Amino acid sequence: MAIPDDPESRKAAEVSRRDFLRGTGAVISAGIVASAQVLEASPAGTKIVGPDKVSITLRINGAAKSLSLEPRVTLLEALRNDLELTGAKKVCDRSTCGACTVIINGKAAYSCTVLALEAQGKEITTVEGLAQGGKLHPVQQAFVDNDAQQCGYCTPGFVMACKAFLDKHPAPSLEQIRTGLGGNLCRCGTYVGITHAVQQASKQMKGGRAHA
Amino acid sequence: MPEYKWPDMNQRSLLGKRVSRRDGPDKVSGRAKYCSDIKRPGMLYGRFLRSPYAHAKVVSVDISEAEKLPGVKAVKIIKGPGSEIQWAFDEVVGVAAVDEHTAEDALHKIVVKYEKLPHFVKEEELGKAGKNAKPAAEQVTGDPDKGFQDAEVTIEGEYGIPVITHCCLEPHGQVLEWEDKNLTVYPSTQNVSGMAGQYAQPLQIPASNIKVRMDHVGGGFGSKFGADAWGIESAHLAKQAGSPVKTFLERDAELFVAGTRPSHYAKIKVGAKKDGTLVAWQSESWASGGLTGGGMPPIPYVLNIPNQRKIHTAVVTNVGAQRAWRAPNHPQACWLTFAALDDMAAKLNMDPLDFFIKNIALTGVRADLYRKELLKAGELMDWKKKWHPRGDSAAGPLKRGVGLGFHTWGGRGHDSECRLTVNPDGSVVVALGSQDLGVGTRTVLAMVAGETFGLPVDAITVNIGKAPDYPPSGASGGSTTVGGVSAATRRAALDALDQLFAKVAPALGVEASQLEAVGGKVQVKGDATKSLPWKQAAAKLGVTPLNVTGKNPGEGKLIDSGVGGVQMADVTVDIETGIVKMNKFVAVQDCGLIINEKTAESQVFGAMIMGVCYSLMEERIMDEYLGRPLNSNMEFYKLAGIGDIGDFVVHMWKDDPEQDARGVIGLGEPPVISPAAAIGNAVANAIGVRVPRPPFSAERVLAALEKKGGLTS
């Protein structure tokens, strides 16, 4: 990052929504956080933690994972750097491109803009958790069949977005696909294949062959 | 010696089929490891403090507080006092720390004092460039003065196309790991075999001490050939820290310093006869790719208008150097040319399809191909029904129009070596120091080897992405990969088969020349009763594997260069909001022999979508005063989403049988060239006025309508 040396523009450059979110201390809503005694709610309903590391537990792909992280660490960073679940990618790092998409409590979410400690107590599914027993999920298989990837860097995020989308819209129209998957971007230009993949997966999942 | 050619069309088991890419399952499941996914034991994270100024002298650098920060393992001053900074975001200090946040914290503790110097970052108006303008000599062909005298109709216009960036989703970067004086590089690159040499000299170690490892790369588009300053400096940081260092650029740096496509602007005058015959061209063009200026676009593009006068000026700006962007210079030249010629067709009140067919001889050797492709595209677009004179006369604010452009590219396969091994157990391995940018290189290689041996694709192990372990293959640029690696692999496989036949022939009681490999067997030609299953045939090798190297270039006609393609767009423009919506986009693309039709089509679809991005959305916007980019993030550097592209039709040109006989020709670049021309001309056809510069954003559309004299709906 470029940091201007004069105080005025330096201040302007440093303050952003993301930096604010990731500020060295984090304010936690009591209702969100379930585990980890360090995060026990104060009588006022909020507790300020950090900047030092705190112990947290995340439920990822059905398994509990204990971590010690600074409160400013995002879920994406925790997945990639601490859990080596590198399917979700860091691309825009500010909720624009969807390469970091995971499913949290059944909904597609940008893991770059969720703090890891905020994701406690929720069911997190990453692309690594989609295939069951070595068999690709119908969405994944449809991506392969319809060549819905080129370099593949946006692919895991797109797969997760498509999965969450189809769970909500099992028989989407073309217009619904074009609107509902607008939160993910691909640079190689695989949208034609992705559209076909969603249509194929939709048919297969309705046919009862889905296993997730 | 075998005859080096592709099998006849009616004898192919794999070539030309639709085969799913073999690394697809890895990519959809998150198993595919990109270099940005790699974590090595003890690995540190690298970050750079970048210059906030476009032009400045470094006065002092204080890293003492950064060095004291817990978790910081190395700090390296890259631009010390006295250094001159030439562009904003240039690397000034490098840091390696135990995690990403600590590395960022360290950057905030570094104090650099600069002496600001005057900068120049916006080249849109040539008049403002002053001494940053470097005009080249005028080029004249024919007699342009007489040409314009003879012309019955002339048009003049100013057109341009701004700098765009590569915006690879996987940013540039690498993991670097030293072991004594040996270095392993895990780069995100288009150039596996060419990487070691670029690290060797600046690090003062022999290239043979360097290993390169890359399984997958998250996009390159011409921007990832080099080791880059951040690669070399990260190697120094890793050495200094005594630990592996991973440095991948933050998105703002990725967008600003890791890839720019040069802009091109031109004042163009065109002369024609009343019947549409083009007779004269004049252009004053300028371009900037940053500090290196920008070369002249090949204008007039594709159509060699008889009388030309051209003068080009390279404009030097204080932004990082340009990088090759998919089909360098062609999209810009195509836009400038086809916008001007479409304006001529409009002035003549001719349908552009008729106008370009009338002038098709000016395209030279591909004239007949272009004519046929134009007619085919017109049929797929329903052009004759959709085209109307400029300005949709329909009532209401929604105006619909069609436009076209066409293009050419070389695409001859690069130098490549394939090491092919047939093991006595029948397993086959091909190894090349190549890479797969998303083309489907692995799948192509398996198809070529499988075709040659009469084996299914799954029977072939493909190894790419390592150097020097695998023999060298060219960088993936300019649509050269598939031609290069497939020809090298075909030659290796044919040679291997020749040697295998010699071992098998005695067992089948015939001459080696009487054998063929089909359907998983080695058999006597035309007599399936005399055969050996592949495994038994391979067992005749004894205990020694058969190792063969095939090269490109080499004997036999396996590849060619030179393609033509046509694209047509159908858009709707809302003249109240200025928003352009894609309805339909048609491409007819010539590419010689197609190895994998499925991935070949994906290349065309992808290029067209990239074309929609730069036609409707992409532009790097510079702040004239601060010298910094205003949109180095993906919220404001926009790419098209799945809802922005409309309906696509791709027709691979296999209509002439002689196409296939040309052999393999690269396909990555050509279909990315025409989109701005097709879409921009469709916008002009819809709204009745030229929007002179992409992206055809709401703002630009409304400005063009305003200039025309207000809105009419």
Primary descriptors:
A: 212 residues; alpha+beta; Ubiquitin-like (UB roll); 2 domains; two-stranded antiparallel ribbon; B: 713 residues; Aldehyde Oxidoreductase, domain 3; Aldehyde Oxidoreductase, domain 4; 3 domains; 6-stranded mixed beta sheet
Find the CATH topology of the largest domain in chain B: Aldehyde Oxidoreductase, domain 4
Rg of chain B, Å, rounded: 28 Å
- Tell me the name of the CATH class of the largest domain in chain A: Alpha Beta
Q: How large is the radius of gyration of chain A?
A: 19 Å
Total strands of chain B: 30
Main sheet strand line-up of chain A:
4-3-7-5-6
Structural class of chain A: alpha+beta
Share of residues in helices of chain B: 25-40%
Inertia-based shape of chain A:
elongated
Oligomerization status of the protein chains = heterodimer
| CATH 4th-level superfamily of the largest domain in chain B | Aldehyde oxidase/xanthine dehydrogenase, molybdopterin binding domain
Low-confidence stretches of chain B: none
Proportion of residues in β-strands of chain B: 25-35%
**What's the domain count of chain A?**
2
Examine the coordinates and then state which fold CATH places here, giving the name of the CATH topology of the largest domain in chain A: Ubiquitin-like (UB roll)
* Alpha-beta classification of chain B: alpha+beta
Describe the main β-sheet of chain A briefly. 5 strands, mixed
